[in-house]
Amino acid sequence: MHQANLMEVELAKIAREKGSTSAVRAYADQLVQDHTNLDQSVIAMAQQSGNLKAMHRAAHESADEKTVEQKLKSANGAKFDKLFLRQASADHQKLIRKLQQDREDASDDQLEAMIDKMLPILEQHKDLAKILMDKEQASGQANRTHG
Amino acid sequence: MREDGNATLHTSPGARFAAGVVSGLIGGILMIGLMIGYAQMTGAGLTTPLKALGAFVYGVEALVMGPEVILAGVLIQLGVAIVLGILFALFMSRATSTLAGLCAGIIVGIVIWVAMDLFVLPYENPTMAARIALEPFAYFIAHLLLGLGLGMTPAFIRAFSRERPHDSESRDRAHPSAAQTQSI
Fold first, then answer.
1. Low-confidence stretches of chain A (pLDDT beneath 70)
2. Minimal Cβ distance to B60: which of A40, A41, A124
3. How near does any CA of chain A get to the CA of B103, in Å?
């Protein structure tokens, strides 16, 4: 979860700069705030359970994540927005599934409570990505019709 | 709580209404002030509490919308607080002591907190419910502040009911016999 938060913050920071619409930039801003906030809870919990060092050791950017970052950095305008929103949607879907699985497997009440608080926030991020993708698609179609 | 049976402690509807509006406004501002300050302090974002309130109207999309959603959040917060203030003022009078008013206000604040947390937010605004779950203690304290604001109602009723010299003169002109009786 720590690595996922770091990754989302990293990608969202790029989108905050490169997003071509105010809605995409606002979404990126929300992702930075929420994932930074959620990560503080993850770090606090790891600290409490004495797993902080292990968590930091395990957190490293994968090759896939580096590729995504490069792709986003090289895209611009509407193409960037589309790529970023699609990536955010896929990442959040994956993360939600992973946390739901962890929730089922967890035997620690504290961990369960933390996942219960995180899941609705991640669902909101996923829903927002879908709403913004639909809007981009609709405005793209409108442009093609008028053009 | 209503103790104004006696004529000298009569509370005019106007004074009651004005006191309700002012105390509701103070409670509403204290409440949202705390939520905004706390959100800023924890990195959740200065405007997030107002956007979460705006989600009552715009749904989850409120989180990525512009100034209109912040305005909606302000209007919802202050509008609801003023209505609560006016309703609360119906049960208060000039004779209600400041302490009793504050205690009643805090109890009402806690009741509103329970109602919002259990019945309103999960069904009417899940976007806000999810965000409140991350900072439950601040949300509770914010309701205590709302209660403190409401609790000031009796003091405001007294302040707004104070007889001005102009009022007593016009009353004496209208009812000279009453003025004579008073002078005896």
1. 56-61, 144, 146-147
2. A124
3. 32
